[in-house]
């Protein structure tokens, strides 16, 4: 039985929890890190890492096809792709992550954690027992898939229904796959599995995928999905599902679609159902609302913190790690008796969560965006243009790409940038620096892009604006 008192108890051993624990430990505190599945979390074994391993071969093959003179047979060896993916996820073995936790001076605890009182965490499982925190409990339990209210879904056998975890870990290519949901997970997995050999149907409730982005992004991604063999069903939505002869019949407005597997990718929600948060006045299933230091807004006593997807703020691994570093530093500083002033853009405030969140969708074409995606109000302006520069022309024949910059016309700074095109993810950090740093466009003019690179589009954007 695990018993003991630590300065900090962190619940959730994924990248977010690891960062929170590490920063608190670096600040001189004793830390226990509790994980009920695998240390390394969703991103390492079921999300970011395996999904990108599945996508990369297809994206590379598409790039080769845009480059005359390169010999290729146009095929992907699915078994080799799965083997490489499994190397990155270590076949689900988290011993390396476990050893890292212990090597960082953090006590790893295996089991399911529940908050059972102020600064008290009860662990059920292999290392079960009760942990007490002198200073803070930090919740970093991430998110879980949303289940849509779809007639017949609850009655389908589990073998026929994929969650995002099944989509990233399966080593069998289904003959026919239907994907519900046109967000990042749905579009990425639709394209990945189509290129691995499945007949894929992407069922959309709206006219195009990625509805949270500008229309030109969704249109470009729809074209890329079609080129990969994905069959799009826009403005549709599934009306019902049922099992028919060990397959799934998906009821659509214009008839039934029969497939071998159904991937439900209709969003995620904070993983707070079984954390015992009702004992401290919070609602199970709801996000843990926090301020910019990570401190829970609705719990008295300045002891409960949270970071990552569980807060509902910016559900992305990199943003969760960023918020976790802030929370760990804040907890350590307050434990030392220091006054924490969470002014924007200091180490004690996760300011970027509000208006400088970078995100990439790793389809072909890629989508990369940070900050605002369209102008809002009279003192903002969209500057939109094709990515048609010397670098892109050399990068791929007929390079398809477009960008939009949102400019504050009073301050002449960038509020956001969106790119769509082959390999545009590598343009994103420069855009993020410009947005976070509020770099004046007149100064950005002197950041000369190297020739011939795709980054030349920065110069063309400034010229389009009028500099």
TrEMBL record:
<dbReference type="InterPro" id="IPR016156">
    <property type="entry name" value="FAD/NAD-linked_Rdtase_dimer_sf"/>
</dbReference>
<keyword id="KW-0547">Nucleotide-binding</keyword>
<dbReference type="InterPro" id="IPR001100">
    <property type="entry name" value="Pyr_nuc-diS_OxRdtase"/>
</dbReference>
<dbReference type="InterPro" id="IPR023753">
    <property type="entry name" value="FAD/NAD-binding_dom"/>
</dbReference>
<keyword id="KW-0274">FAD</keyword>
<feature type="disulfide bond" description="Redox-active">
    <location>
        <begin position="43"/>
        <end position="48"/>
    </location>
</feature>
<feature type="binding site">
    <location>
        <position position="309"/>
    </location>
    <ligand>
        <name>FAD</name>
    </ligand>
</feature>
<feature type="binding site">
    <location>
        <begin position="141"/>
        <end position="143"/>
    </location>
    <ligand>
        <name>FAD</name>
    </ligand>
</feature>
<dbReference type="Pfam" id="PF02852">
    <property type="entry name" value="Pyr_redox_dim"/>
</dbReference>
<dbReference type="GO" id="GO:0004148">
    <property type="term" value="F:dihydrolipoyl dehydrogenase (NADH) activity"/>
</dbReference>
<feature type="domain" description="FAD/NAD(P)-binding">
    <location>
        <begin position="6"/>
        <end position="319"/>
    </location>
</feature>
<dbReference type="GO" id="GO:0006103">
    <property type="term" value="P:2-oxoglutarate metabolic process"/>
</dbReference>
<dbReference type="Pfam" id="PF07992">
    <property type="entry name" value="Pyr_redox_2"/>
</dbReference>
<keyword id="KW-0285">Flavoprotein</keyword>
<feature type="binding site">
    <location>
        <begin position="181"/>
        <end position="188"/>
    </location>
    <ligand>
        <name>NAD(+)</name>
    </ligand>
</feature>
<dbReference type="InterPro" id="IPR050151">
    <property type="entry name" value="Class-I_Pyr_Nuc-Dis_Oxidored"/>
</dbReference>
<dbReference type="InterPro" id="IPR004099">
    <property type="entry name" value="Pyr_nucl-diS_OxRdtase_dimer"/>
</dbReference>
<dbReference type="GO" id="GO:0050660">
    <property type="term" value="F:flavin adenine dinucleotide binding"/>
</dbReference>
<keyword id="KW-0520">NAD</keyword>
<feature type="binding site">
    <location>
        <position position="267"/>
    </location>
    <ligand>
        <name>NAD(+)</name>
    </ligand>
</feature>
<feature type="binding site">
    <location>
        <position position="52"/>
    </location>
    <ligand>
        <name>FAD</name>
    </ligand>
</feature>
<protein>
    <submittedName>
        <fullName>Dihydrolipoamide dehydrogenase</fullName>
    </submittedName>
</protein>
<dbReference type="InterPro" id="IPR036188">
    <property type="entry name" value="FAD/NAD-bd_sf"/>
</dbReference>
<feature type="domain" description="Pyridine nucleotide-disulphide oxidoreductase dimerisation">
    <location>
        <begin position="357"/>
        <end position="459"/>
    </location>
</feature>
<comment type="similarity">
    <text>Belongs to the class-I pyridine nucleotide-disulfide oxidoreductase family.</text>
</comment>
């Amino acid at each position: 039985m695990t018993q003991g008192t630590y300065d900090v108890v962190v619940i959730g051993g994924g990248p977010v929890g690891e960062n929170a624990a590490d920063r608190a430990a670096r600040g001189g505190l004793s830390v226990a890190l509790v994980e009920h599945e695998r240390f390394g979390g969703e991103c390492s074994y079921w999300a970011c890492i395996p999904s990108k391993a599945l996508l990369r071969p297809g994206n590379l093959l598409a790039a080769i096809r845009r480059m005359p003179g390169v010999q290729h047979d146009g095929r992907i060896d699915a078994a080799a792709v799965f083997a490489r993916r499994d190397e990155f996820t270590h076949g689900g073995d988290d011993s390396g992550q476990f050893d890292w936790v212990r090597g960082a001076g953090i006590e790893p605890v295996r089991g399911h954690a529940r908050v059972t009182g102020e600064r008290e965490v009860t662990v059920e499982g292999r290392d079960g027992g009760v942990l007490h925190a002198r200073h803070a409990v930090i919740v970093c339990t991430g998110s879980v898939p949303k289940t849509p209210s779809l007639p017949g879904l609850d009655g389908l056998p589990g073998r026929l229904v994929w969650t995002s975890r099944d989509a990233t870990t399966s080593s069998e290519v289904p003959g026919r796959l239907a994907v519900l949901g046109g967000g990042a997970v749905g579009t990425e997995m639709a394209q990945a599995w189509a290129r691995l050999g499945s007949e894929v149907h992407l069922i959309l409730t709206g006219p195009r995928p990625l509805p949270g982005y500008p229309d030109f992004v969704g249109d470009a991604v729809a074209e890329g999905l079609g080129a990969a063999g994905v069959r799009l069903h826009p403005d549709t939505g599934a009306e019902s599902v049922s099992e028919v002869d060990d397959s799934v019949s998906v009821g659509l407005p214009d008839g039934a679609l029969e497939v071998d597997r159904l991937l439900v990718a209709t969003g995620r929600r904070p993983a707070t159902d079984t954390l015992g948060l009702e004992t401290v006045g919070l609602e199970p299933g709801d996000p843990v609302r926090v301020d910019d230091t990570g401190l829970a807004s609705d719990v008295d006593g300045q002891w409960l913190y949270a970071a990552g997807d569980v807060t509902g703020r910016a559900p992305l691994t990199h943003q969760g790690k960023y918020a976790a570093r802030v929370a760990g530093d804040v907890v350590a500083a307050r434990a030392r008796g220091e006054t924490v002033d969470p002014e924007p853009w200091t180490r004690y405030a996760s300011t970027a969560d509000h208006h400088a969140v970078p995100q990439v969708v790793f389809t072909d074409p890629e989508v990369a965006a940070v900050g605002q995606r369209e102008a809002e109000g009279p003192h903002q302006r969209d500057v939109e243009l094709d990515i048609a520069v010397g670098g892109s022309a050399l990068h791929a024949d007929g390079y398809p790409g477009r960008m939009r910059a949102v400019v504050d016309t009073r301050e002449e700074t960038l509020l956001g940038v969106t790119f769509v095109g082959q390999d545009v993810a590598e343009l994103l950090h420069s855009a993020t620096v410009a947005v976070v740093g509020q770099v004046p466009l007149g100064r950005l003019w002197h950041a000369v892009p190297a020739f011939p690179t795709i980054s030349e589009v920065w110069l063309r954007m400034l010229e389009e604006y009028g500099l």
